[in-house]
Specification:
With 168 residues, the chain is an alpha+beta fold. It has three helices and eight strands; from the N terminus they run ααββββββαββ.
């Protein structure tokens, strides 16, 4: 029986060299597409790593002090607001817990590390609103410390608390 010339030709047989080359070309093209995707993944990973490195570099690594400090009597005033850390706006209100048996509270606000206070007041309430002229003294980029002491009539300290904040 005579075979068809077209089916015997090497280029037309499914297992021929030409068919294999075409098949290999298709595989290489598929691999090129995968390689492009691999570079995209690598680029995304590098971008993510750069973002993490920038956050680590620019993040504030200053440890936040606790919101309370022990007075000489060992009694602590819990300071409610502002909370320690970075604030977007200067705080207008300061608040703390009530201490029984006190005559007044001594409130002090100062630039952290400086000895002269910005605000130094005696109050009988458990909160204080800054006056506009006091609020104007608080500037962005600086850190501030504030403290409250509960005093008896003879000025002996019953309790104390201190905290800090920074204005962005």
């Amino acid at each position: 029986m005579a075979q068809n010339v077209e089916t015997n030709h090497p280029a037309t047989r499914p297992d021929s060299a030409a068919s294999s080359i075409e098949h290999m070309e298709e595989e290489f093209r598929a691999l090129e597409g995968a390689r492009t995707r691999w570079w995209l993944w690598l680029g995304g990973l590098l971008l993510l790593a750069a973002g993490a490195a920038a956050y680590y570099w620019f993040a504030d690594r200053t440890p936040v002090r606790p919101t309370r400090a022990v007075a000489t009597t060992g009694v602590v005033i819990e300071l409610a607001e502002p909370r320690p850390g970075k604030l977007e706006q200067p705080p207008t209100r300061f608040a703390w817990e009530s201490i029984s048996g006190r005559h007044d509270y001594h409130f002090v606000l100062s630039v952290e590390g400086e000895t002269v206070p910005l605000v130094d007041r005696a109050v009988t309430n458990t909160s204080l609103e800054l006056k506009p002229e006091e609020l104007a003294l608080l500037t962005p980029g600086r850190s501030y410390a504030w403290s409250v002491t509960a005093r008896q009539r003879d000025r002996r300290i019953l309790a104390a608390g201190q905290s800090r904040f920074q204005i962005r």
